[in-house]
Amino acid sequence: MEHEIVNRETPEMKELISGIREMTKRLKEIAETHRPLFGGEIYLTGREVCERLFISPRTLQDYQDKGIIPYTQIAGKVLYRLSDINHLLQMSCRK
């Protein structure tokens, strides 16, 4: 049985390295955008809510204080249900 020497310059190795890089890139994209479900709900951070509503963190705090936006606090982290944000947008939409 003959053994073949494989190094980084062989076409097979270049293809393998390219595939690994592409897979790593895709996994990073998924990790950055993936939102786990809790009880079937998607939760957003305050920053994500501010970006979606085009409001400042202070305005978001005012909305919380006034009961306009419901929120959940888990271990000191404030989270907002996506369904609540979508409902708020639907109720605020002018026809």
Automatic annotation (TrEMBL):
Record-linked Pfam families: HTH_17
Helix-turn-helix domain: residues covered: 43-90
Matching SUPFAM superfamilies: Putative DNA-binding domain (SSF46955)
Protein name: Helix-turn-helix domain-containing protein
Organism this protein belongs to: Porphyromonas circumdentaria
